[in-house]
Amino acid sequence: MARLAGEPSIDRHPVVAVRPRLRTELLLLLICYGAYEIVRNLVPTDHAMAAHRAYLILDLEYAANLDVEYSLNRLFADHTWVAVPANYFYATMHFVVTIGVMVWLYVWHPGRYPLYRSLLFATTLVGLAGFWLFPLAPPRMLPGFTDTVISFGTWGIYDSGPTASVSNQYAAMPSMHVAWALWSTVAIITVARRRWVVALAVVYPALTVLIIMGTANHYLLDAVGGAVALVLGYALARGAFRATRSPSCPAVTPSSSRGSFN
């Protein structure tokens, strides 16, 4: 079995450069996203308990001198030119970037695609478990914080404002915005060769962390939870690859698996 030097894999297993069928992948993505939305919105909605946990989170951050959410939220709330773009970033970028990276891997790096698809699904599964086990009220539900979506009337935000009635408001821990952003970064920096692409990939999750706090949608510890979800997702995906790997696989050739980020 041949593989290129530096080819990332789970459990050192060779990456197979065979592009999965598009119809199958689309169906799988739709099923998984539908299941994600259903389970996410079935999270218990005990507001008193969720708010109590929010104050526990803030107390922990205060003890560690990490309670930066309120200062960031005030900065966003006091500057329209910061708040409005941040609202749209929060509402759209985790979908746009994640889907974009998935398509990029599928088209240009089919040998890598199954690995990162499995990692994304496993990470999201961990996130759903976190939502169910630890319903948490986001900062915007607490006195003193400003919900920038409502304050600036930004269209398209699903977690607050007019669409709140159809989206569970306590699915905050871990932050899937951060988990998916880190997933995108890992996928890009292990494949892309252009430095500016790698630089943007590194900046993206850092900017995501600032925005989820500035818009009062998450705590810093939610972001930490997102990173933990990715690590646990890796462990699950690694186990899946171990269980399903084939004793033989076709060789990986440069023409079939490598490409540049153009």
Quick tags:
262 residues, disordered C terminus, mainly alpha, 10 helices
Strand content: under 5%
Please give the number of β-strands: 0
The span between the termini is 29 Å
| Tally of separate helices | 10
Rg from alpha-carbon coordinates: 20 Å
> What's the SSE pattern?
HHHHHHHHHH
Percentage of residues assigned to helices: 55-70%
Number of domains: 1
Stretches where pLDDT is under 50 for at least 5 consecutive residues are 1-14, 158-166, 246-262
Q: Note the overall shape.
A: globular
Outline the structure in words.
The structure is a single chain. The chain has 262 residues and is mainly alpha-helical. It has one domain. 62% of the residues lie in helices and 0% in strands. Helix 5 packs antiparallel against helix 7 and helix 5 crosses helix 9. The radius of gyration is 20 Å and the shape is globular. 38% of the residues are buried. The N terminus and C terminus are likely disordered.
Task: List the SSEs and their pairings.
Blueprint: H1 22-40, H2 47-63, H3 69-77, H4 80-108, H5 113-133, H6 148-152, H7 176-189, H8 195-214, H9 220-244, H10 254-257
What's this entry about, in short?
The protein has 262 residues and is mostly helical. It is built from 10 helices and no strands.
